[in-house]
Write a structure and sequence with these properties.
The structure is a homodimer.
Chain A lengths: L13 H8 L4 E6 L6 H14 L4 E5 H4 L11 H21 L2 E5 L5 H11 L3 E7 L2 H7 L4 H6 L21 E4 L5 H14 L12
Parallel strand pairs in A: 1-3, 1-4, 2-3, 4-5
Helix pairs in contact in A: 2-8, 4-5
Chain lengths: 204, 204
């Protein structure tokens, strides 16, 4: 690339951007109880898409709760603001042309629907469905034990509600679906919706 | 891409991600007065990088102040929180491997330095330098006129301070540098720092 790059003064529309980058922006929103497997599926999906050369990026508690939303707790108001900010960031990544994989409990239907409205026809809601009993049995972080002992207030499934998606684009039953199968289910959906279509990359 | 994608269970490190995506994450931070030309240079840089097939994305008032930070005003506290959130988002884009172009007045040195610390050696501060008099003469949005009439409180350069960068990576004097020259200056710096190096993209 020359330092005297070819000069263009115009801005780029979404279509031109996606064609030049050989990618389409989409928001894949994984919702489910703590311990249901959202982040595990999300990270596996991200890694596998990147290994195919796709521009994918995952947002989850690990990179959001300690950064952008470190000032927020788990009250209903804070959860709402947490999801609002994540939705705004997901919209930016989607606009940038990234396959944006969001793994959050996101227990309130209204909050998820607000993100859906933001990104319009680029929203894929995935219900990572797992019973409270099974999540509590797995309890990978020991949170259910603490929640049942009353040590964690507002814990979804124990002391705070989870509003399951009514008509999600994808439903995954983690009792019967392996991580690999779950990832393949999502990829197949994206292909079917023409959200993974990649045009020939121009020579560089 | 087959729906039965090759299965990898491991997560990706930054190096592997950047190699697979043929891109390096970096945060280019354009700071300067309102009307100095930050957003114009930022948008031109973004469009030209994308036209070269690079994954670039621009953050500025247009896509931040009406979304992620729509709850914030222009008091010193709100400006600090505004830049904190933008910094957190820029860190995510940088981590994703994007050339992240941030165009914000960002008048406080401490706030900019906090972002620099977040992204460590991937921060390029660009001072888009233009005198208050010249910015007020251009006044593309009519804001200086309003600010001088006392209709906009806390307006940087008029009724709020601007702390110029002391030792920015790049200094652009918009009185003498065209947009094209400004963009080329930034691109040349990125190349010199090996931040635009692209490895061969594996066949897909």
């Amino acid at each position: 690339m020359s330092t005297n790059i070819t000069w263009h003064s115009s801005a780029l529309g979404r279509e031109e951007r996606e064609k030049l980058l050989s990618s389409k922006g989409v928001v894949i929103w994984l919702t489910g109880l703590s311990g249901s497997g959202k982040s595990t599926i999300g990270r596996a999906l991200e890694a596998n898409l990147i290994r195919e050369g796709r521009f994918a990026y995952g947002l989850d508690g690990d990179n959001i709760r300690f950064g952008l939303c470190k000032d927020l707790g788990f009250s209903p108001e804070d959860r709402k603001e947490n999801i609002r900010r994540i939705g705004a960031v997901a919209q930016l990544f989607c606009d940038a042309g990234a396959i944006t994989i969001c793994s959050f409990v996101s227990p309130y239907k209204n909050d998820r629907d607000a993100v859906r409205t933001l990104v319009a026809n680029r929203f894929v809601e995935v219900h990572v469905d797992c019973s409270v009993e099974e999540c509590a049995r797995r309890d990978p972080k020991g949170l259910y034990k603490k929640a049942r002992a009353g040590e964690i207030p507002n814990f979804t499934g124990i002391s705070a509600p989870y509003e399951a998606p009514i008509d999600p684009e994808i439903h995954i039953d983690t009792a019967t679906s392996s991580i690999e199968h779950s990832v393949n289910t999502i990829v197949a959906y994206l292909m079917h919706q023409d959200l993974l279509h990649v045009v020939d990359r121009p020579n560089r």
